[in-house]
């Protein structure tokens, strides 16, 4: 599996711009759960994306530094290979406990979480020339041991998956309030 880290990074950057724009929606749309679409509000999806992607981008940095938990052992699980090649299917996984959003998410928390996640993405940019050649791996809770390039792709796929869900929730909550 060949991964163009520059393309992944560019697409991830576009995601941050698009997801940040969703904060312009009123609270009546952003903070409401529409269970026909998802068990989370758009705000909860945004929080989850930004928190989880910050952790995935940290994995890229850790692999780049080497040492610690980085290993050259292990491989992708079949599920991991499928996800990295075809994307994330809705309703197929549960978020690990450490990246689940709180019951109530405030705009202040969203803004802070976005800023931290975007800073992680910006820090990864300078590593891009070396990322394709890094041999270290770190385990993903469901997908097996991922390389830095695979973590970058996973961050982008994960971002796009939850951004689509957040947009669908916003559309449903906005439509529900229309006459």
Explain what the structure shows.
The protein contains six helices and two strands. The radius of gyration is 17 Å and the shape is globular. A hairpin with a 3-residue loop joins strand 1 and strand 2 (144-146). The N and C termini lie far apart (49 Å). The protein has helices spanning 5-21, 27-30, 42-65, 78-86, 107-125, 148-176, and strands spanning 138-140, 144-146. It has a single domain (38-176), classed as Four Helix Bundle (Hemerythrin (Met), subunit A) (Up-down Bundle), CATH 1.20.120. Helix 1 runs antiparallel to helix 5 and helix 1 packs parallel to helix 6 (148-176). The chain has 179 residues and is mainly alpha-helical.
Biggest beta-sheet profile: 2 strands, antiparallel
User: Main sheet: which strands, in order across?
Assistant: 1-2
What is the third-level CATH name, the topology? Four Helix Bundle (Hemerythrin (Met), subunit A)
Structural class: mainly alpha
CATH 2nd-level architecture: Up-down Bundle
Mean pLDDT: 91
The helix fraction, in percent, is 55-70%
- Backbone shape: globular
**What is the CATH class?**
Mainly Alpha
Order of helices and strands: HHHHHEEH
Radius of gyration: 17 Å
- Sheet-strand content, in percent, reads under 5%
Q: Can you count the beta strands?
A: 2
